[in-house]
């Protein structure tokens, strides 16, 4: 959530496209979005994929142990070896992704429109892949979509100083930001919509 909001604040064109999509598919006369709304928000879904590509919540997988001798890209791996996947490195690999550090949700509507995060496309595996991949994937994606969509529907969001968000990462198991994201929020919808919800 934090990285998605930070990326959108630093990429106002993308933020405006999300808002346009919300205006078209939800409108400004209703507050709460539900799951049936989010399926129409294809640009927002691309924003989430692109965020999980550049800033996967877990940059490294959990430790896996080879149960038998095997070979990975020509490297011999003995049974019992502990293996970690560097998911972030794969997802930022310039041999696979053009301008990998650029935030371009449009990739997932054009050149990479058939790539998803469900563990089948090995260039994008923020939830890892295979039998031990993240069991929380469906829950995480739904909650991300719903929360991000609702927050961006309800509020105009700006940085406090109007300056770009500091995108430095801190070391950690879960991709923390080096500095907290601080934003100012103001209502985006007409007052009666918030009053109806009380
Ligand atoms: C955007 C959100 C999330 C991301 C990107 C994510 C990513 C991951 C990754 C990469 C792994 C390691 C898998 C492997 O090494 O093969 C993992 C494991 C796991 N995740 Fe998630 N996760 C997320 C949210 C969640 C949620 C919401 C839950 C629970 C409700 C959850 C529960 C777990 C569990 C239990 C494991 C360990 C699975 C095992 O070792 O068998 N995750 N997750």
From TrEMBL:
Belongs to the cytochrome P450 family. SUPFAM superfamilies: Cytochrome P450. Keywords: Heme, Iron, Metal-binding, Monooxygenase, Oxidoreductase. This is Cytochrome P450. It comes from the Eukaryota. InterPro entries: Cyt_P450, Cyt_P450_CS, Cyt_P450_E_grp-I, Cyt_P450_sf, Plant_Cytochrome_P450_Monoox. Heme binds at residue 134. It comes from Gossypium trilobum. GO terms for molecular function: heme binding; iron ion binding; monooxygenase activity; oxidoreductase activity, acting on paired donors, with incorporation or reduction of molecular oxygen. Its cofactor is heme.
